[in-house]
DDE Tnp4 domain-containing protein (Stylophora pistillata), 213 residues
Amino acid sequence: MILSSLMLKAFLLGVLGSLDSGGETRACSVKSFRLIFDHVKGKASVMHYWKGPKRTGDTSKLKIDRQVRALTLEQEFPLTMMKLRLGLFLFDLVFRFDISASVTSSIFTTWVKFRAKELKWLIVLPDRIVTHRNLPDMFKKYYPKCRVILDCTEIYIETPSDLAVAAQCWSAYKHHHTIKFLVGITPNGAISFLSDFYGGRASDLFIVEDWFC
């Protein structure tokens, strides 16, 4: 059965919020969800859905008839969030939303590309004055000059069909195929930097040196 309004509300309260935290955190997550969705829904209503690099083409002026879509925008957005937040398999989402695998894949790919373009302005490195003004008390005491905290992270991916790509993406640490990238956050926890993606084979040292040296 397609995600109902009641199920959507349960998702917002449960998945986006921390299940182990109080209502204040969950309410904040719901508020953030609505804020982001309301910001992008205008442009999302005219976006063209991904059908592969050869079939999608230049779609900047094309408008999609929402009546022919399997889900509403308000259902497509949490579908994407569920995939990113929980790492659900494609056919899990197919079952939950009662749509085909091809439509699910198209929705997810479209929203990921769309959000990467429309929300990239959220990732910004504040200047030193702003960073210092918002330093947590412990940082003011022990790390007053800290501006950004860097670390590499990995995301599990399906096994690539290309053997050369599969070899580049194999992570000996995770014992799985992954993509890896460098993340920077400000001392108060806001994401302020993202590097390009690397195969899981790349070491943290290699990524840092390749990006900054």
